[in-house]
Amino acid sequence: MRWNIRMCLAAVLCTALAPAVSSAGLTGVEVMTSTVMQEKQSSFSGVALRMRIASPRLIQGIEIMPTVEYWRNANTVEPFGIRTTRKDATLGADVRYTFNSTRMRPYVGTGFGLHFLASSVDAPSLGLNHETNALVKGGLTALGGVSFPLGGRFDNFIELKYHHVPSYRQLKFNWGLSIQM
After folding, report:
1. CB-based burial of residue 77 (10 Å sphere; 0-12 exposed, 13-18 middle, 19+ buried)?
2. What is the spatial distance between Cα 181 and Cα 171, in angstroms, rounded to a whole number?
3. How far apart are CA 7 and CA 181, in angstroms?
4. Which residues are bridge partners to 81 per DSSP?
5. 117 near 87, Cβ under 8 Å?
6. Residue 2: what are its φ and ψ, rounded to 5°?
7. SS3 labels along the chain
8. Residue 56's domain spans which residues?
9. 9 within 8 A of 136, measured Cβ to Cβ
10. CATH code for position 138
11. Span 2-61, pLDDT tens digits
């Protein structure tokens, strides 16, 4: 049942983006790594992939960015035999405005993401044997960063991205490589 709901939500997001993408052109692809700081957790790493799409119907400098993000954090407390895992796979879309500049190109943006969150704990000494909890939550995003040209079609970028997911708020420091199309 959960799988059907997730697939329906992904289909709705794709359908919402289809009109903008149909008359638009792919301007770039970005891969990135993240340092994720989630509410009530220490920092850990994540990865992401996103496309940049520009449309002639939009203001110059605005791009739509469908994004897939993923992180997983696992912990083990050996003397007690406790193992925990938390993970988040996010399907989202951001809208970004890049300021016109010659070298460094600062940008700001906002968007929305569907977070497929899962937690599990295995603590037999506490009476918890492979307990899991999975849920889907939507959340708004805000981002800001700067892109630096490396040469040819490649850019390097750093950004700060905030995901406002109730009870699972996340702040990410992203670094990545962008390939211009």
Report:
1. exposed
2. 29
3. 29
4. none
5. yes
6. -60, -40
7. CHHHHHHHHHHHHHHHHHHHHHCCEEEEEEEEEEEEEECCCCCEEEEEEEEEEECCCCCCCEEEEEEEEEEEEEEEEHHHCEEEEEEEEEEEEEEEEECCCCCCEEEEEEEEEEEEEEEEEEEHHHCEEEEEEEEEEEEEEEEEEEEEEEECCEEEEEEEEEEECCCCCEEEEEEEEEEEC
8. 2-180
9. yes
10. 2.40.160.20
11. 545 555 555 554 445 445 444 569 999 999 999 998 877 777 889 999 999 998 888 889
Q: Is the dihedral of CA 5, 9, 10, 12 positive or negative?
A: positive
Give the CA angle between residues 44, 145, 105 to the nearest 5°. 145
Selection from 165, 157, 169, 180 nearest residue 48 by Cα: 157
Number of structural domains the chain divides into: 1
Q: Which amino acid is at 119?
A: S
**What separation in angstroms does the CA of 64 have from each of 47, 154, 180?**
19, 19, 14
Backbone angles phi, psi at 44, to 5 degrees: -160, 180
pTM score > 0.85 for this model?
Answer: no
Angstrom distance (rounded) from CA 165 to CA 170: 7
